[in-house]
Amino acid sequence: MKNILIAALILGASFGAVAQNNVSYHGKKITDKGAIPATQLSTKMADKDKLPAKVEGTVESVCQAKGCWMKVVTGNGQTMRVSFKDYGFFVPKDIVGKTVVMQGQAETTTTPVAELRHYAEDAGKSKAEIEKITEPEKELTFVADGVIVKR
Hints:
This protein is an alpha+beta fold and 151 residues long. Helix content is 26%, strand content 40%.
């Protein structure tokens, strides 16, 4: 009886600890200190091609195949594609609308049509929507070393 009570207390304490941990870490463990809002990133980039940064924003979409990329809202109806360094980690597929903090490298890139179509397929777009992609896109992207998902 005493062992059952001890086991119940340990189990209850562990659930309490999990319930209070409202974040999950992916890739390199980082903190949210010094993160700038995603809405300010393009201004910070100015005329730079690359910029090391720590950014906080809201997830707009996630790769539904594996969680191997996400799009974060940057404001004015725009999003930024976030990939993960060396394809070394993924994020949960159910984090749309969640706040994330990511640390890594912001870049201005041109994404070829084939890659854009691949991303559209990963996002679950229809064949008709995918076929409408005919031009490469110049966009702000981010390669993250680490991501915090705030639950």
